[in-house]
Design a protein that fits this description.
About 25% of the residues lie in helices and about 35% in strands. The protein has three helices and seven strands; from the N terminus they run E-H-E-E-E-E-E-H-H-E. A five-stranded antiparallel beta sheet has the order 2-3-4-5-6, sandwiched between helices. Strands 1-7 form a two-stranded parallel sheet. The protein binds nickel (II) ion.
Length: about 180
Amino acid sequence: MIYPIVAYGDPVLRKRAESIPENTDLQELISDMFETMYNANGVGLAAPQIGKSIRLFVIDGEPMGEEELIGFKRVFINPEILDEKGESWPFEEGCLSIPDIREDVQRESRVKLRYFDENWEVREEEFTGLQARIIQHEYDHIEGVLFTDHLGPLKKRLLKSRLNNISKGKIKVGYSMRFPSKV
Ligand code: NI
């Protein structure tokens, strides 16, 4: 099942998402999230983006065509950042909830997490480069943070009207979305 993707401006994107009780059956939701993400040509999707305020996100970086992302398909349940370090570097990010806007965001190059995978096996792992980047972006979503929050005041001011238009649904998108001001 393909969910509509929640657009910028919806309060669910601003909430800190709730932990999921251990061993909850998430198989159907996870497969729906991958389907929704692939349908929108995304490489990551967090549960708040389909209106569910729970600590879950899915990633498949392979379509980006970068060597370091080959086979990088993961499910993160109740992830916790244990450590974030390394040189901060810029990368142009976008977001399925904020269509047509892409901006350079600075993030640290390494991130270490503890999380449960789709089988509720606990894992502890360190990620670098683009893998870390996608994780950091998705992790932000379950904390109620969007990539545009990381931009400087001038950039934010310049984007304001475009972001407003997105929340009002005044935008053309190739996938189904749910707009806060249209509901
Ligand atoms: Ni996003």
